[in-house]
Write a structure and sequence with these properties.
43% of the residues lie in helices and 14% in strands. By secondary structure, the chain is an alpha/beta fold. It has one domain: NAD(P)-binding Rossmann-like Domain (Rossmann fold, 3-Layer(aba) Sandwich). The chain starts with 9 loop residues before the first strand and ends in a 19-residue tail after the last helix.
Length: 307
């Protein structure tokens, strides 16, 4: 599409030395944006910069672990120093520390919160200040997860921060509307090094890495493709073509694109004079229980993928 162009725009993409972040950085650069590639691994960041520049794009590396105000400020400052402005922020950097609740340590919890939630907050704040100063709008994209929408066994920390990012984006979409800065959440699913560690996907991931195509049940029902299948949504959200889209959580992976709903009241009941515990029990059983929703991510079986 000719109107989905990022020519003249400048982006910061955190955690873009590999995996999904690398795909985002490459796609944004391919659409014309100059990119600040951030990662904790300097060699990985430099490699992505080399890939972008060899393809005719513009990019620089900025090494640092997200979370602190200092790193966030440096990322935005680097974009403005190297390329003159900041238009797009993709807060992608993340870590996992999966444990069931009774085995999760303070460090497990705090590390995930610092990287995902605080890292997105500090970078979003720095970007908002810069974009408001420029007065020409901007795009902030946070990266969510199905775990943040549904919950997931063993991921107290990860599910909590991913849910928090959606609420944060909706709040920012209100606060930054007058500045014409849109804020959205992408909920990506893809075959990555992390996905490959999930037992049900080990065989599929090995075959995919060896060059085999992904079966339709994987691409459609499990919404898993390559990281490059996710990147077009980032390009569109970063472009002028999505100027009216803000405060949304949009999922993409494989052949699937989906818009998540905002939380809403499923059943409403009123009782004159207020509620007793007995009345709540009756109303729950008769009106609300049939509409209650299960927790967790439900996926179809993969048998057909190996047929």
């Amino acid at each position: 599409m000719s109107n989905v162009s990022l020519s003249g725009k400048v982006a910061v993409v955190t955690g873009s030395g590999r995996g999904l972040g690398r795909a985002y950085a490459r796609a944004l650069a391919g659409a014309g944006a100059a990119v600040v590639v951030n990662d904790v691994d300097g060699a990985a960041a430099d490699a992505v910069v080399a890939e972008i520049t060899e393809a005719g794009g513009r990019a620089v590396a900025q090494v640092g672990a997200v979370g602190s105000t200092e790193v966030a400020d440096r990322l935005v400052a680097r974009a403005r120093q190297e390329f003159g402005r900041i238009d797009i922020v993709v807060s992608n950097a993340g870590v996992l520390r999966d444990r069931v609740l009774w085995k999760m340590s303070d460090e497990d919890f705090d590390t995930v919160v610092t990287t995902h939630l605080r890292g997105s907050f500090t970078l979003g704040r720095a970007a908002a200040v810069a974009m408001r100063e420029q007065g020409e709008g901007g795009r902030i994209v946070l990266i969510g997860s199905p775990a943040g929408q549904h919950g997931n066994f063993g991921q107290t920390n990860y599910a909590a921060v991913k849910a928090g990012l959606v609420a944060m984006a909706r709040t920012w979409s209100l606060e930054l509307a007058r500045a014409q800065v849109t804020v959205n959440v992408v909920v990506p699913t893809a075959i990555t090094a992390m996905t490959a560690t999930i037992p049900i996907y080990e065989e599929v991931a090995r075959a995919f890495e060896a060059g085999a195509p992904l079966p339709p049940v994987v691409r459609r029902d499990h919404a898993l493709g390559a990281p490059e299948d996710v990147a077009p949504l980032l390009v569109w959200l970063a472009s002028d073509a999505s100027a009216e889209v803000t405060g949304q959580a949009i999922a993409i992976g494989g052949d699937k694109l989906a818009l998540y709903s905002h939380p809403e009241e499923l059943v409403t009941s009123y009782r004159d004079g207020g509620w007793t515990a007995e009345a709540i029990a009756d109303t729950w059983r008769e009106e609300m229980a049939p509409r209650s929703q299960p927790s967790g991510i439900t996926l179809p079986p993969l048998e057909s993928a190996h047929a």
